[in-house]
Write the structure tokens for this entry.
Amino acid sequence: MNKPQWNKEFRPPSGWDEMFFGASNGVGILPTVNSGFRTFHPEFDREKCVKCMLCWVYCPEGCIDKSADRLEIDMDYCKGCGICANECPRNCIAMVKDGE
């Protein structure tokens, strides 16, 4: 089989202007606001939350903010995957259908 050969030496991007931007960039964070494909979104039960930070660690989009005194989800960038709810050991996060 004839495979194409890459003859150039790999050079990592030197800045944001050389990064690929599409649905996501190379580090897995959405660079643009959610395009409306989400059908479920997470909701916190703040009374149960003990701030174990597992939701923050496992969120693939990095949309959970831990800088405040409580955890906040940036719904503009949340894609509704449910990983945060699945990883929460105290079931503090519930996935709710959008529009309800």
Q: What stands out?
A: The chain has two helices and four strands. The beta strands are 40-44, 64-65, 72-73, 93-97. The CA atoms of residues 5 and 73 lie 44 Å apart.
